[in-house]
Amino acid sequence: MPRLPQPNRRHFLQGVAAVGTASLLSPATRALAQASPNDRPVFATIGLRNQGWAITSKSFKFADFAALADVDSNVLGANVEKTQQKQSHKPDAFKDYRKILDRKDIDAVMIATPDHWHTKVAVEAMYAGKDVYCEKPLTLTIAEGKLIEKVVKETGRVFQVGTMQRSESGQRFLQAIALIRAGRIGTVKKVTCGINGMSGSPQIPVAPVPEELDWDFWLGPAPKVDYRALPEMRKGYGGGVPLYSNCHYAFRNWHEYSGGKLTDWGAHHVDIACWALGVSDTGPSKITPVEYSLPVEYKDGHPVVHDRYNAATSFKIKVDMPNDVEMIITSEGDNGILFEGTEGRFFVNRGKIVGKPVEDLKDNPLPEGAIEDVYGGPVSANHTANFIEAMHSRKQPISDVWSHNRMLEICHLSNIAMRLDRPLNWDADKRQIVGDDQANAFLSRENRKGYEINM
């Protein structure tokens, strides 16, 4: 049976839930932040570079971190030191995440590994009795999403997907959904998700594996290949690693480990679009690759060149959605979402929400409580706070696995359609591609021997 929270944590979180219903923003967050050390949940983070540290650092005010894990000893050591400075006690450090799952004192894990590791770690964590916060995109394949859903249901664990655009960076997006629900643009006919393209790479040669990196463990479930890197170093976010490689920050550019921009930014904007359209529990009927560019040659859906990035660099995908809504996913134009209806249109992204329906709010505001109705209650200003509140209630948080997987299926199918250079018809009930055995073979992937999921 799953391990229940300790009584003192349970009592504390009951108080959080009671306070959280009192207003739209922040009381629950303040209650979490002001809890005594003995009343805070115990977390561990698996995968620490970039986003791993970002979600950990945002959570110190709500949770204590007992352990960290990473296959890069330099990354692990640096984050152990930073964590000790933040919480005044040193977390245990592990290369092998399984040592964290063996710990009985850890209530939940935060997973920020590369995408191809998400499902294995998440499933094993749930069977070990841990609640899970996992970064987006949640899966590498559609079959992985189905497996995670099955295990969440079987174990009763709470599972938050790290699509923070639904909460802490989401006030404009919640307003956008409220506008649509209030009929401010009439019947929605078209939604365009601008998610940017990416650059290809030069030829990336085989290189010595850095001494601090366990390359075989980093590959894990993915096929065994040589480590590749060029000496030029990345600057800014994701710095400290080669600008071009098949590892670390650059993993998103390879289908072996991720899905390019389609699953990176698509996991944000396609999610909001589906939420706004009210189709988070269904899916499209057809995916058509209108135009796109792949940086290497493909044969039968697989790249034939293995020393360059292989995810799409530019694209325009047409998606036939329920209720005759057309969705366009494009690498052109502004990053954000354009909603078009029979009575108007507006655009929203993380920096702005603009258009006549927005301007009209000055004289015709949304009904009181419209934002809370979208969110399903008081809005958590922090994604971790929402996760911890769900850990108490044993109800799924704002970014649940079911809605996430349904919208991510659109992104996965878009990649498959480009790789095979043809439209795909999708049965949203059976969650299968219609009449295309070759395409259906891309819905799953066999893990490398020795890295199977332990169930």
Keywords summarizing the entry:
Rossmann fold, Dihydrodipicolinate Reductase, domain 2, alpha/beta, disordered N terminus, 16 helices, 455 residues, EC 1.1.1.18, 2 domains
List the helices and strands and how they pair.
Blueprint: H1 7-20, H2 27-33, E1 42-46, H3 51-57, E2 64-69, H4 73-87, E3 92-94, H5 98-101, E4 108-111, H6 115-127, E5 131-134, H7 142-155, E6 159-161, H8 171-181, E7 188-194, H9 215-219, H10 260-264, H11 266-277, E8 286-293, E9 298-299, E10 302-303, E11 314-321, E12 325-330, E13 336-341, E14 344-348, E15 353-354, H12 356-359, H13 370-375, H14 383-393, H15 401-420, E16 424-427, E17 432-433, H16 437-440
Parallel strand pairs: 1-2, 1-4, 2-3, 4-5, 5-6, 7-12
Antiparallel strand pairs: 7-13, 8-11, 8-16, 9-10, 11-12, 13-14, 14-15, 16-17
Helix pairs in contact: 1-2, 1-14, 6-7, 7-15, 8-11, 11-15
Description:
The structure is a single chain. The protein is α/β, with parallel strands linked by helices and about 450 residues long. It has two domains: about 5-170 and about 375-400, Rossmann fold; about 170-200 and about 250-375 and about 400-445, 2-Layer Sandwich (Dihydrodipicolinate Reductase, domain 2). Helices cover about 35% and strands about 15% of the residues. It is built from 16 helices and 17 strands. The protein has helices spanning about 5-20, 25-35, 50-55, 75-85, 100, 115-125, 140-155, 170-180, 215-220, 260-265, 265-275, 355-360, 370-375, 385-395, 400-420, 435-440; strands spanning about 40-45, 65-70, 90-95, 110, 130-135, 160, 190-195, 285-295, 300, 300-305, 315-320, 325-330, 335-340, 345-350, 355, 425, 430-435. Strands 15-14-13-7-12-11-8-16-17 form a nine-stranded mixed β-sheet. A six-stranded parallel β-sheet has the order 3-2-1-4-5-6, with helices on both faces. A two-stranded antiparallel sheet has the order 9-10. Helix 7 (about 140-155) links the parallel strand 5 and strand 6. Helix 6 runs parallel beside helix 7 (about 140-155) and helix 8 (about 170-180) runs parallel beside helix 11 (about 265-275). The protein is globular, with a radius of gyration of 22 Å. The two termini are about 15 Å apart.
